[in-house]
Amino acid sequence: MTASTTARTATTEPGAPVRRVRSRRRIRVSRVLLGALGIVLALIWVFPVYWMVNSSLLPNVILQNSTPTWLPFGGSFDNFAAVVQGGTFFPALGMSVAVALITVVCCLAFAFLAALAISRFRFRGRRSFVLAVLLIQMLPAEGLFIAQYKLMGTLGLLNTVVGVSILYIAAVVPFTIWMLRGFVAGIPADLEEAAMVDGLSRTQAFLRITFPLLAPGLVASGVYAFLQAWNEFTVALVILPQSSSATLPLWLRGFVQQSASRATDWGQVMAASTLVAVPVIIFFLIVQGRMTSGLVSGAVKG
């Protein structure tokens, strides 16, 4: 009996269709259970954000009630108006945006060149440099506060965008180099060599072939640098002691302290927290599409 005859005999057994139906049902049930688990986890993750936005739309009298209000019926934007009209939000927003942009641009530039050097060239001290990048990440930030404060004070960079941006760049660049190194190492150098055989120069081959494939890595590294610069609190607290030069995390802390001195207005605190989170959400909505398109184009070109 041949193999094909055996296969036909097995598929024509009386119990074979039943087993296939049962296996399909088990697969469907497992998919439904996994989907339900994913929905539950997503709701648990989203609930704190929803509660923050919901509380920002309700007056403080309702928030102090022992019975929670799940939906903001009858709510308003009065808390947001009170926060914005305080006159300190927009300067803090401008400070955070400037620091984040400088940090992202400089980190990507420095880390990109360093990752190329580590991945594409063999030079003396290469392994020591990679090891130093990892060791720098292990240094506790709190142990550097005194030295950083004295250095920035000597250079006259306290309470300035440049001063805090320099420290953010120095803190974020090592890990960004490590991230981009993996992306660069994943792109074969043979692609550039093949393009050079077709008549392109090394620079043209890099810009037309390698650089587009690195777009997802650059976006991911930029997201990391942006989050580090936007949410950082302790270094900014040391380097930016004046309230007029505060970033949004410092502004939010000061806003909570002022509110606590006259009985905490949780509606305004939640509104201020929502305003701090909105730029990050907008940034992710923009970057997510570009990251997906970069991944797709990189797969097609590769």
Explain this structure to me?
The chain has 302 residues and is mainly alpha-helical. Helix content is 77%, strand content 0%. It is built from 14 helices and no strands. The chain is flat. The C terminus is likely disordered.
Question: Keywords, please?
Answer:
77% helix, mainly alpha, 302 residues, disordered C terminus
Rg? 27 Å
Strand and helix order: HHHHHHHHHHHHHH
Q: Structural class given helices, strands, pairing?
A: mainly alpha
| Percent of residues in beta strands | under 5%
Q: Span from first to last CA?
A: 47 Å
Mean pLDDT: 81
Percentage of helical residues? over 70%
> Biggest sheet, in brief?
none
The dominant shape is flat
What is the count of helical runs? 14
Q: List the uncertain runs.
A: 294-302
Query: Got a strand count?
Result: 0
Write the layout of secondary structure elements.
Layout: H1 3-11, H2 16-56, H3 60-63, H4 78-84, H5 89-120, H6 126-138, H7 145-154, H8 161-185, H9 190-197, H10 202-213, H11 215-231, H12 234-239, H13 248-261, H14 266-301
Give a brief description.
It contains 14 helices and no strands.
